[in-house]
Amino acid sequence: MADFNKLLGKLEILSAAARYDASCASSGSRRSHGDGGGSGLPAGVCHSWSADGRCISLLKVLYSNRCRYDCAYCVNRRSTDGPRASFTPSEIAELTVNFYRRNYIEGLFLSSGVFSTPDGTMEELVEAVRLLREEHRFNGYIHLKLIPGADPRLVEQAGRHADRVSVNIELPTAASLRQLAPDKSREAVLAPMRTVDELIVAAAGERQSSPRSPRFAPAGQSTQLIVGATPENDCEILTLSEALYRRMHLRRVYYSAYVPVGSDNRLPALPVPPLQREHRLYQADWLLRYYGFAVTELLDESTPQLDAHLDPKAAWALRHPEQFPVEVNRADYETLLRVPGLGVRSARRILRARRSGALHGDDLARLGVVMKRARWFLTAGGRYLGERLPAAAGTLRDCLLAGYPQSAARPDQQQLALFSGLPATVCGEL
Ligand code: SF4
After folding, report:
1. Are 312 and 280 in contact (CB under 8 A)?
2. Which CATH architecture has domain 2-298?
3. What b/e sequence results for 57-88 when a residue is b if at least 16 CB atoms lie within 10 Å of its CB, and e otherwise?
4. Nearest CA to ligand 1 atom 4
5. Which terminus in the chain has less CB density within 10 A, N or C?
6. Pocket residues for ligand 1 (CB within 6 Å)?
């Protein structure tokens, strides 16, 4: 028990040290079932998604918060004070199995400071997950961080044991990396990502011809970018993400609003972390991955930042009135997905429902389509579905920002001309 209490002491330090890594979907969960049901740990538990799409709770912890590097944005950097601790491979394996058997967690998210050489650090991380898999027969989910600069042989071993692996790029450009994380190089970060991508492709090919051949990181790889610590704009950040999705087949890029953790004069003095910007980047990222958008459609040199007030799809639609309104009875799936307010589920329901006959405006609400935003961009059977607006309502952007309409139209209201070349009176005739 004394040893276990010692482990819990380390856990307190190392789970707190891991909380700034956003590349696990959430962190710091507090779940409690006072009646004795399976409870979550009060600290160090995050949620993620497994390869088959299940939401799972993970023990999120650093192997060590000792680090030789001095990345300016990091709470664990060499030059900070504060308690330091390290596990051994057998300690982290035993702790994980212990919590797993108690039903606290369904897996492990393990990262680490670079406490020795990149290979020396990676070797200990690999040993920890090897012990879990081979000695403890641990069948839970493992997300393992790769250390920039680690040998490809160790990267391969990591991916044989882990479900997901990741290397944090952290900063979008080599110049920013040089400035804030001078011990790391862009190549040292990208090299393991390339290795992982090649090994995932190779393993998938082998399993097609031989289904029993070993798996390699079946939940893919991800990375994290810090937002707001350096001057890169949203266009540069999303262009990098798009390249990572297309060329290295990353499953996820996580965006982490910069949280000021020190007084280093290389860092901006932000009054609060840019959480709204982080939120917009996630929305735009979603459009890249699931809605068929390219970064160049959302942003360019003249508009390098996402609209702080409007979601990226609505902002795109307002810049492209020539694409609207869209006729629900004729538009293909990809076009429907571009209508603000329509998501994957709504677009599929529309396609399915119209096989049985032409759709009218009322049918869409019955299908569960949320019309509040979509109505401004749709026709059904030639009839425009937008509301009549009071003259004081201003532009469509104003209406979307205000969440209009909030009530039924009144007789003194007039039609707003929304789309170029379509006088207000004609919109209703389309
Ligand atoms: S390598 Fe940099 S970001 Fe990672 S723990 Fe060390 S100081 Fe922090």
Report:
1. yes
2. Alpha-Beta Barrel (3.20)
3. bbbbbbbbbbbebebbbbebbeeeeeebbbbe
4. 113
5. N
6. 67, 69, 71, 74, 76-77, 113-114, 181
Q: What is the pLDDT of residue 149?
A: 95
Answer whether 141's CB lies under 8 Å from 132's CB. Answer: no
Residue 219, CB-side half-sphere exposure with 13 Å CA sphere? 26
Which tokens in the block code for residue 97?
Answer: 């199995």
What is the layout of strands, in order, in the sheet containing 383-384?
326-327, 378-380, 383-384
Are the CB atoms for 164 and 220 separated by under 8 Å? yes
Largest interatomic CA distance in the chain? 80
Low-confidence stretches of the chain (pLDDT < 50) are 25-42, 407-417, 420-430
What is residue 40's predicted lDDT score, i.e. its pLDDT? 38
Residue nearest to atom 7 of ligand 1 (CA): 77
pLDDT at 19: 78
Six token digits for residue 117 = 């050489």
The per-residue pLDDT for range 45-75, each reduced to its tens digit, is 777 666 666 778 999 999 999 999 999 999 8
* 257 CA from centroid of ligand 1 (Å): 17
Q: What is the pLDDT of residue 380?
A: 96
* Among protein residues, the one whose CA lies closest to atom 5 of ligand 1: 113
Distance (Å, rounded) from C-alpha 95 to C-alpha 28?
A: 18
Contacts of 18 (CB under 8 A, 6+ apart): 27, 44, 60, 61, 62, 109, 111
Please answer whether residues 415 and 387 qualify as being in contact, where contact means their C-beta atoms are separated by less than 8 angstroms. no
pLDDT, residue 29, reads 35
Supply the pTM of this predicted model.
Answer: 0.85
On the CB side of 27, CA atoms within 13 Å amount to 18
Q: Is 125 exposed, middle or buried (0-12, 13-18, 19+ CB in 10 A)?
A: buried
Q: What pLDDT, on a 0 to 100 scale, did the predictor assign at position 45?
A: 72
* Ligand 1, pocket-test mutation among 62, 70, 74, 170, most atoms within 8 A of CB: 74
Kindly report the number of other CB atoms within 10 A of residue 356's CB atom.
Answer: 8
For 162-201, write each residue's pLDDT tens digit. 999 999 999 999 999 999 999 999 999 999 999 999 999 9
Identify how many contiguous H helices and E strands the chain contains and give both numbers: 16, 10
Domain locations in the chain? 2-298, 321-427
Q: How many CB atoms lie within 10 A of CB 179?
A: 15
Q: Which of 64, 77, 78 to mutate to test the pocket of ligand 1 (most atoms within 8 A of CB)?
A: 77
